[in-house]
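New to this. Look over this protein:
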Amino acid sequence: MRIVPLLAALVFCTPVLAGPKDVVRAYPAQKVHADTYVIHGPQGVPSVANQSFMNNPAWIITADGVVVIDPGSSVQAGRMVVEQLRKTTKKPVTHVFNTHVHGDHWLGNQAVLEVWPKATIIGHPDMIKQAKNGADAFWIKLMSDMTQGYTDGTRAEIPTVEASDGQEFKIGGKTFRIHSSTDAHSKTDLMIEMVEDRILFTGDNVLSRQVMNLRDGTFKGVMKATERALALNAKLYVPGHGKTGDRKFVEEHKAYFDTLMAEVRRMYDDGMSDFEMKPVLVDKLKAYRNWAEWETNLGPQISLAILEIEQE
């Protein structure tokens, strides 16, 4: 007779615990500032090897609860983030910020709401619009395809609160100021400034030692966002991918784009094609050749730079 309640328990547990693959392998959280933690995910694209986890989830412990920024790429990644978060505090998550529409940053929302269903999720209005118009299904399928089904069971929990440029959210004694754009990395981007602590969460507008995938964005927008990040003169910058640090890596990011755009413009004026430009740029940018996704994204960046020049 004991088997009946056991089976019933398994049935009711299934939606929450999907099986042996229900949680991404653990990555340690790093305390980067008082009450601020970041899990620095491995750099690269979603894969079977990384179980789809490759961004930088972060959280801030406030007087009233916890604010999470970008809880990861799937319910499985989000559950790992929740496990690491609970090692640092017993306070509940009250708010989640999603920096942009790319699913590796926000599909972990589901895991947060499994534990704290009253948490408020905040995003760019265009992110919310795109997610409701099919970007949610696109990213869920992409994550599943790239991980051979590891992320199956993930459900899109779309932000319900819009964040506008310059808006300030007062949460637990801390001020979260929004710096948003419509033409940068994804055209749905938020950078989130913690005013009192002088920390800037850049999302994917600024990466640390990684060549950016810019297929959904513009060079001009990203370069403007990078300049804006530097002008804020934060004490600490937390990128969407790569290691947290001071303004030095943001300046490196800017120097890379400045060099690339200047060289593409020069060669375009000389009548060169993209395939002729690439070996020149490989040499000019050789200081950056050890950056993540160098081989994958340099070529597409050259093509996009040409397109933007042609549209001037």
